[in-house]
Amino acid sequence: QKKVFDMIRRWHECLDKLAQEKQVFKIETTGETWMGATNCATSQPHSHARIMADFALVAVEAAGRIWVDPDQPALGFLQVRVGFHSGPVLANVIGSSQQNLRYALFGDTVNAAVRLCQDTNNKAGLVHCTRQASELLKLQADDA
């Protein structure tokens, strides 16, 4: 168990650093899942899909450099499924006391992204996005 937690810690530290570099807002971590968003904490109306796609690609590449267990190189490197969707969300600060307040996103947009990551038919090591995210990404790429 300690090695699993160490692997997850190393992965999340990597994602946190990448998120800061790419201006992706970290929403939450739940177990092995890391969720971030663009156009939330920082206004990015004409580039948020492009920023998220870039972050997703860099995250997949970074996972391929993180050992599952540094003491057992034969286990290889981390392989992850990354999914992103673009659309409206509901956002709120939740929690019952100052010590456990957190920012949370809700709605179909979040659910669509989560489903992409959980779909075992989607290959690890690739970025998966919905048609809606793909179309927005094409528009924003044309604007670049």
CATH class: Alpha Beta
Beta-strand proportion: 15-25%
Low-pLDDT residue intervals, each spanning 5 or more residues: none
Give the beta-strand count. Answer: 6
The domain tally reads 1
Strands in their spatial order, largest beta sheet: 1-2
* H and E order: HEEHEEEHEH
H/I helix tally: 4
CATH topology: Alpha-Beta Plaits
Which geometry do the CA atoms define? globular
CATH A-level architecture: 2-Layer Sandwich
| Percent helix range | 40-55%
Cα radius of gyration in angstroms: 16 Å
Round the mean pLDDT to the nearest integer and report it: 93
Largest sheet composition:
2 strands, antiparallel
GO molecular function: adenylate cyclase activity; guanylate cyclase activity; nucleotide binding; peptide receptor activity
Main location: membrane
Pfam families: Guanylate_cyc (PF00211)
Protein name: Guanylate cyclase domain-containing protein
Main attributes of the structure:
alpha+beta; two-stranded antiparallel ribbon; globular; Alpha-Beta Plaits; single chain; 144 residues
